[in-house]
Specification:
The complex is a heterodimer of chains A (about 650) and B (about 350). Chain A has about 650 residues and is mainly alpha-helical. Chain A folds into 2 domains: about 1-50 and about 395-650, Orthogonal Bundle (MetI-like fold), CATH 1.10.3720; about 90-390, MetI-like fold, CATH 1.10.3720. Chain A contains 29 helices and no strands. In chain A, about 50% of the residues are buried. Chain B has about 350 residues and is α/β, with parallel strands linked by helices. Chain B has helices at about 30-35, 45-50, 80-85, 110-120, 135-140, 140-145, 150-165, 180-190, 210-225, 235-245, 260-265, 270-275, 280-285, 290, 310-320, 340-355, and strands at about 15-25, 55-65, 70-75, 95-100, 100-105, 120-125, 195-200, 230-235, 245-250, 255-260, 300-305, 325-330, 335-340. The chains are: A mainly alpha (about 650), B alpha/beta (about 350). The interface of A and B includes residues 237, 239, 243 and 254 of A.
């Protein structure tokens, strides 16, 4: 703070100062363009990546001997694999000597319908059964069941670990302060980066995929559970204490029942997170819908990709609707009188019907294997191909043309600045910006972490990725602020946007890749578009919440003193929700990063591509691991700078 | 410390609660402040110097068995902290709180729980009902945590449900009830364990004025019928006057005056207390005994005497409609008379002060 006062008056405003740094950066960048860019061809290893490759090899070699593997990792792998295989055997994989799993499709649909009915209501139950049947009609029943089995298994294991930890962290400040850094880190880690290290330890397969999924979903559940306990109203708890409850009684009889609804909400979030991760985890051998999606992406088979992606969407909607309905149901008062009797009859009749359906599905072919006559997946695949063909040829300027123009005029220029400027100039510039926004500590941290990227030898690729992240974040903020302000000011707009936002937050990022690839072809632009699609809903939500959170009388005062709508927005609502804007920018950037690296699949290059290549080419495994590490370093730098900005705005000026 | 009527510090048989040298200081170095001169600094000075806030400063008082003891003060005066220190919902910094001769501040956790389950109970401003439990199970909660069997605790809960006028609501959930009804559940819950002492922390502040009046009458009725010792916290002086046998007025953590309603009105110790009591019509708090004076020479005295404990407001019609002055008796002994002029003076006084504010 004090350092600022030493500067001339025009430089005391932080935004001016940042622009000044950027201007000098651009000038120096164009003067020294192409020097010391540390560019490296994909196939070349550096000392660091070589070392990582050897480390990986030695880990592989010690799998059968090293005590940590023999006594910890390998048994863990077997237990988890056994658990998941159990669920798969029930609904997905044919039992030995048979063509169907223990329960055929008809039985599964009925069982899911019954569980949803028991935990919420018959309307949601019907919807869930319909959505599952639709997955069968798409011709991907077995894949769907594999994904469902993986998701369920991972969710159950995650909940078993996360809910107790969450409760503990909710009750104890010490535990919370201990796990908070872990939760924070987990939130900014892009999904793609855990895959390779886990596959190295647990082998490619179900166990690694499940553990990766758990690592992704457990922090979400812990956070929400802890929040559920922490945000309980103090009154009833104080009252229960005044009546002589022991700690155990307090937890069992007061805190947990009161937190139940929020904890179930946590289960909803955990389930959706697990589903989206299970799809991506196909990269390290998770069975299910992720496989056809990846295959379709690799050979650019849009039709099949759309069918598999659609099934993921249907499954996501089913899991979301059913768990959301369970949240609502848990908040309602129990039925009484006639409603109670109806409900009991419904539960008994539904139970009997479900048992009959399961029985049928074991002994009747039509109920065991999804009937071929009902499958319409092929038509949808063909239609999707035809539509893509028509769109790309008819609206060329909107698809490939837009891609080319954007790439030449925007993407290449910014990438030129970041990737073609000598690395030390870029590091100094970013650290200076970090210093202006976040202070000395953040600046030093940024310099060290970026220096580490240079040492690893992946500087140039990191800058390619950073370019895409920054551009996508800028677009996301532009769209997000406009839509967020509209939604925050008008309930009508909010209601209209809600389904789109919900869908955006529910859908696994992976499935966006298919249509985007179809429309724009494999390119960096496609990755940016995916990032924008994925991150915009979050930013709109955060901004809308911020704008709505501006005190009503503040707005009324502005209106009554004669402000126009634009003036109310620009002079009152946006400045007052500045913190939300910065928070939105931070969230948006992290979400964008997670997706842009997945864009390595659709020709986005950069670090994401190296991670994926490292997965398939043994000689580049070290480079893949290094790229994962570089993604983390980049993520931490961006997060710290943005967080510091947001935190500074939290403090009221004294 | 300024107190108009010093209380006996020894515990006699009639004392339900005895609070001695009770302190609560919030802040890091709380323990070191009490014995230093800093303890008596004003609030802003103390905060500036030590970063601490003295919420309760050296509180000393006894509450008699069956008494309604009201603690009155504005928000931030420390009254809620005081009542929480007395039940150890907040751990006091120093002092002693003897309930039934037992110092609850030195009681072990288990002992404290036992006392809370059997000896005293509390009613809260925002009710503090458990939203996931039906009325009956809210009321039975302390019996439940004390291990009372379901049948027995439900039987007892139904008894108190009748007692507070909640018949027919046993199976409702709190959210289905109005605020006033919810606080009836709060009262019933506090009565369920048949406690010796009830602590009521601004129990009616969150209610509408009309409901509040009903609930005040309800508490008066319950107190008359059950005779429980009550410590009642409020920020509303008229509520304090209406319910309290004695009232302690708090400001910035200190008890500035502790007395009967009538004495507070007639003899406020300072301007702070006078500021409150000026708004209270004297006829509403003074008892006939206060107003009684020796009969003048040859003054005509009417036949039926009034009781010295009756509130003046309630006897005005009788005095006005009588032919001469009216005699006042305490326990059958004549203590003086009240004439029409005395009433006129008092009412004129009230009217003057009412218009002055």
């Amino acid at each position: 703070m004090n350092a600022l006062h030493a500067l001339p008056a025009w430089m005391q405003k932080r935004s001016t100062l940042v622009l000044f740094v950027i201007a000098i950066w651009v000038i120096l960048g164009s003067l020294f363009s192409g020097i010391h860019t540390l560019e490296l061809s994909t196939a070349t290893n550096t000392p660091a990546t070589d070392w990582l490759r050897e480390l990986a090899a030695s880990i592989r070699g010690s799998r059968s001997e090293a005590p940590i593997f023999v006594y910890v990792f390998n048994p863990l792998r077997e237990v988890i694999e056994g658990f998941i295989e159990l669920i798969r055997a029930l609904i997905a994989v044919p039992a030995s000597g048979n063509v169907i799993p223990i329960i055929g499709w008809f039985g599964v649909v009925a069982l899911v319908g019954y569980i949803v009915y028991a935990s919420s209501n018959w309307r949601t139950s019907l919807l869930s059964m319909g959505l599952l049947t639709a997955c069968g009609m798409l011709g991907v029943w077995t894949y769907t069941m594999d994904t469902l089995a993986m998701t369920l298994g991972a969710v159950l294991l995650s909940l078993a670990i996360a809910i107790p930890i969450g409760i503990w962290a909710g009750l104890s400040d010490r535990v919370m302060s201990f796990i908070r850094p872990v939760l924070d880190l987990a939130q900014i880690l892009p999904t793609l980066v855990y895959l390779a290290p886990l596959a190295l330890v647990f082998l490619i397969g179900i166990a690694a995929a499940t553990i990766a999924t758990m690592i992704y979903s457990i922090p979400i559940c812990v956070r929400i559970t802890a929040h559920a306990i922490r945000s309980l109203k103090a009154g009833p708890i104080e009252a229960a204490e005044s009546m002589g409850s022991t700690r155990g009684q307090m937890l069992r009889k007061v805190q947990l029942p009161m937190a139940r609804r929020t904890i179930i909400l946590g289960i909803n979030q955990t389930t959706l997170a697990a589903l989206s991760f299970v799809v991506i985890a196909a990269l390290i051998g998770a069975p299910g819908l992720g496989k056809p999606v990846i295959e379709a992406l690799t050979i650019r088979n849009v039709g099949d990709g759309v069918v598999a992606g659609l099934a993921v969407v249907l499954l996501a909607v089913m899991l979301d609707r059913s768990t959301t309905a369970a949240v609502q149901h848990s908040g309602e008062l129990p039925p009484e009188g006639a409603a109670l009797i109806t409900r009991r009859i419904g539960l008994i009749a539904g139970g009997i019907a479900t048992l009959v359906a399961i029985y049928l599905s074991r002994f009747q072919l039509w109920a065991a294997v999804f009937p071929e006559q009902l499958v319409i997946g092929k038509y949808i695949a063909n239609a999707a191909d035809a539509v893509t063909e028509w769109l790309t040829s008819t609206f060329y300027f909107l698809t490939i043309g837009l891609n080319e123009n954007f790439t030449i005029h925007v993407l290449n220029r910014i990438e030129g600045l970041l990737a073609n400027t000598p690395w030390y100039i870029t590091i100094i510039a970013i650290s200076l910006i970090a210093a202006i926004i976040g202070g000395r500590f953040v600046a030093v941290l940024s310099a060290i972490l970026l220096g580490a990227v240079v040492l690893i030898g992946l500087w140039n690729d990191a800058m390619v990725t950073l370019t895409q992240v920054l551009i996508a974040t800028a677009i996301v903020m532009l769209i997000g602020v406009v839509m967020g302000v509209l939604a925050g000011r008008s309930h009508r707009v909010e209601r209209a946007l809600k389904p789109i936002l919900d869908a955006g937050q529910t859908l696994p990022a992976f499935v966006y890749l298919v249509p985007v690839l179809a429309l724009f072809g494999p390119s960096r632009f496609a990755a940016i578009v995916c990032g924008v699609f994925y991150a915009t809903p979050v930013v709109v939500r955060v901004v809308a919440d911020g704008v709505r959170g501006v005190p009503h009388d503040m707005v009324e005062a502005a209106v009554s003193s004669g402000s126009s709508t634009t003036q109310v927005v620009t002079k009152v609502q946006l400045p007052a929700s500045k913190r939300s804007l910065l928070l939105g920018a931070n969230q948006g950037m992290i979400f964008v990063l997670a997706v842009v690296v997945i864009g390595g699949f659709v020709g986005a290059g950069g670090l994401g591509y190296l991670v994926i290549v490292g997965q398939s080419k043994p000689e580049l495994q070290g480079k893949g691991l290094a790229a994962g590490l570089a993604i983390v370093l980049l993520g931490v730098v961006m997060d710290r700078i943005a967080q510091a900005g947001a935190r500074r705005n939290e403090k009221t000026p004294t | 410390m300024t107190m108009s009527s010093p209380e006996p510090s020894a515990i006699h048989a009639d004392t339900a609660i005895s609070v001695k040298g009770l302190w609560k200081i919030f802040g890091e170095k709380a323990g070191t402040i009490i014995d230093s001169p800093d303890a008596w600094l004003s609030r802003p000075e103390l905060l500036e110097k030590t970063g601490c806030v003295a919420a309760v400063r050296d509180a000393n008082f006894d509450v008699a068995n069956g008494e309604v003891f009201v603690v009155m003060g504005l928000s931030g005066s420390g009254k809620s902290t005081l009542v929480r220190c007395m039940t150890r919902l907040i751990e006091p910094t120093a002092g002693a709180v003897l309930i039934d001769g037992e110092d609850i501040l030195t009681a072990s956790k288990a002992k404290l729980r036992e006392l809370r389950r059997t000896k005293f109970s509390m009613v809260f401003q925002h009710f503090g009902l458990l939203p996931h439990r039906r009325v009956i199970d809210n009321i039975a909660y302390s019996l439940e945590v004390n291990g009372v069997k379901k049948e027995a605790r439900h039987e007892r809960a139904l008894e108190v449900i009748d007692l507070v006028g909640l018949e027919g609501y046993a199976n409702h959930f709190p959210e289905q009830l109005s605020g006033g009804m919810q606080q009836r559940v709060g009262l019933a819950r506090a009565l369920a364990v048949n406690p010796e002492v009830m602590f009521l922390d601004e129990p009616f502040s969150a209610l509408d004025p009309l409901i509040r009046r009903d609930m005040q009458n309800e508490v008066k009725r319950l107190h008359r019928d059950l005779g429980k010792t009550m410590v009642f916290i409020t920020h509303d002086l008229s509520e304090a006057m209406k319910l309290g046998d004695r009232i302690a007025i708090m400001r910035d953590g200190d008890i500035v005056q502790m007395d009967t309603p009538a004495n507070l009105v007639m003899h406020p110790v300072d301007d702070y207390v006078a500021d409150f009591t000026n708004d209270i019509p004297k006829s509403h708090v003074l008892t006939a005994g206060y107003l009684a004076r020796p009969a003048h020479e040859g003054e005509a005295v009417d036949g039926t005497a009034i009781d010295a404990e009756e509130i003046v407001r309630d006897v005005i019609p009788r005095i006005v409609s009588s032919s001469g002055a009216v005699g006042v008796q305490r326990a059958g002994q004549p203590v003086g008379v009240i004439g029409k002029d005395d009433i006129l003076h008092l009412v004129a006084d009230d009217a003057h002060e009412g218009s002055a504010t």
